Amino acid sequence: MAPGLARRLLPQRPGRPGRRAEARLRGGARTHGRALSPSAVVWAAGSVPVLPASIPGLDLPCVLTAPDAIMADPALRDQRVCVVGSGMTGIECAEMLAEQGNEVGLYEMVDQIGPGIFFQNMIDIMGRLGKTDTKFFPGHRLVSVEDGRARFQKADGSEAVAEFDRLVLSLGIEGVPAPEWLKGRGFELRVAGDALGIGRIQEAVRTGYDAARSIA
């Protein structure tokens, strides 16, 4: 995903740089001065970044999610940045941060960078990252975060400590479930996209189509 497109599309944590629209439906909704009493609602609220509760320190101000970093305004520049997680979002975020003049370290729990990325995409992005000063740390599992320091457990059981100005998490996403107040309100409720199950664009479009078709 191009950084400019990512800035517009990726979700945002409350209290972080950027803006995120929020919609609510309470019994009836109003739009342009008209009350709505829907016969059906499709919940397609997407997904949010995973923040494991088992890792202390993730609530510190110096910790950002990948969407936070991508949409930061002003953009992050001339800082020491640890990017944790090297899936497609993490590795592209690392590339963007490196191009913005940051000193980037890319950390991955498994023993190779870019797990699950198609090799054609990997060749392309690593070719660009190779032109930056990005450092790679496979086999490093994030254990804890303190203000300016992150502790990792290496594959051999030893510990590594990284110092940073910002730590960016890219540990996957989880769907946003339909809220309880939407259920049992007298209209059909359908769920689509990542809210139904994490997938690619093809699956998201298909579930939206199926949801629309299933509405009586």
Shape call: elongated
Helix content: 10-25%
Largest sheet: 5 strands, parallel
> Helix segment count?
5
On the 0-100 scale, what is the average pLDDT? 86
Spans of at least 5 consecutive residues with low confidence: 1-23
Q: Total number of β-strand segments?
A: 14
What strand order characterises the main sheet?
5-12-6-7-8
Q: Into which percentage range does the β-strand content fall?
A: 25-35%
In terms of topology, how is this protein built?
Layout: H1 3-9, E1 29-31, E2 34-36, E3 40-43, E4 47-49, E5 63-65, H2 66-70, E6 80-84, H3 88-99, E7 103-107, H4 119-129, E8 135-137, E9 140-146, E10 149-154, E11 159-163, E12 166-169, E13 173-175, E14 188-191, H5 201-214
Notable traits:
216 residues, alpha/beta, elongated
Please provide a written account of the structure.
This protein is α/β, with parallel strands linked by helices. It has five helices and 14 strands. The longest helix is centred in the C-terminal third of the chain and has 14 residues, at 201-214. It is elongated.
